[in-house]
Amino acid sequence: MTRPAVHPSGPIICLAALLSCAPSVQAADWGKPLGATYDGPEGKARAVTPAPLELAADERATMAVFERVTKSVVFIANTAIQRDPWSFDLLEAPQGSGSGFVWNKQGHIVTNFHVVYGASSIKVTLADRSEYKAVLIGADPDHDLAVLQIQATDDALSPITVGSSNDLRVGQKVLAIGNPFGLDHSLTTGVVSALGRTIKSLSNRTIEGVIQTDAAINPGNSGGPLLDGTGRLIGVNTQIVSPSGAFAGIGFAVPVDTVNRIVPELIKHGKLIRPGLGVSLVPDAMAKRWGVKGLIIGKVSRGGAAERAGLQGARETMPGRVELGDVIVSVNNRPVSTVDELMDVMEDHKVGDRVTVDILRNNRRQSVTVTLQAIN
């Protein structure tokens, strides 16, 4: 078979046409700058996609909360007296920082106790960047709470709106505002991850009913407010669980119901006035060593609530021989075997309340009624 003749110029003409239509960037140029003379679309700014006419309702609500509540959030810096290792002079050195919030128009500021612990001087910076020297009015290390006060004009102070924590639900949206790593007025969002948690305070006491959240809380957020979706205070951010020291998804806040009970006491008395039985207890470790299940009364305060109720402490029956006092086993039908458990029961009461105390005396169980007294 004879093949048809092909004009020699045909393929050459087609190849030339293809080359003339090829893009100006060749395959060999891939991975290199396009060049100063390149005028294609890749060398120009991308077209801007217009924003939606309105932000989502949830976004607008979060922005409104931040704009309103940020006026109540403060930055706290403290310094401590240190001795210069070379000159041995006493110097004030930065010790730490944290957050807080305006409680009232009298200039009271609420924060964590650990934010101001050991401070020789404290400075508070308001949202308008005005700075004030603060004094410590009162502290409750057991709940990691402290109250400061600054001298500021009414118009400079924007008290936070106080909510409640007893009706919170897991999954509820929360917001945290603070000064993490010294970055002022940072907002993070999340949800209530769990309720009723317990954590240890700086004084090694258990704080009950704590709120767990996944809203990012970092160093510097301590003492700042945890808010619900409407901007009401529901807790004071206080601790994180983290292997690295930075936020790892688990933060804790002291519930606002606890804060709202303690802060007025700190403002009035400088400390928390607690209800108590008026007894000194034998240390838990010693009671455990003796095999006693309950709280051994070591001493009854003279004229106190326990003495009036007929409770008895330890006493020496003969030289070198001591007879144990009454052993408290429950208060209002709640078993108690450690000092922490007794303190937790007292959290639910106030001075003047009458409680039923079950005791063991000479291995016989009996009940007495005690009217709680004020203790330091």
TrEMBL record:
Pfam families: PDZ_2 (PF13180), Trypsin_2 (PF13365). Its EC number is 3.4.21.-. SMART domains: PDZ. Keywords: Hydrolase, Protease, Serine protease, Signal. One of its GO terms (biological process) is proteolysis. Residues 266-363 form the PDZ domain. Residues 1-27 form the signal peptide. One of its GO terms (molecular function) is serine-type endopeptidase activity. Belongs to the peptidase S1C family. This is Peptidase S1C, HtrA family.
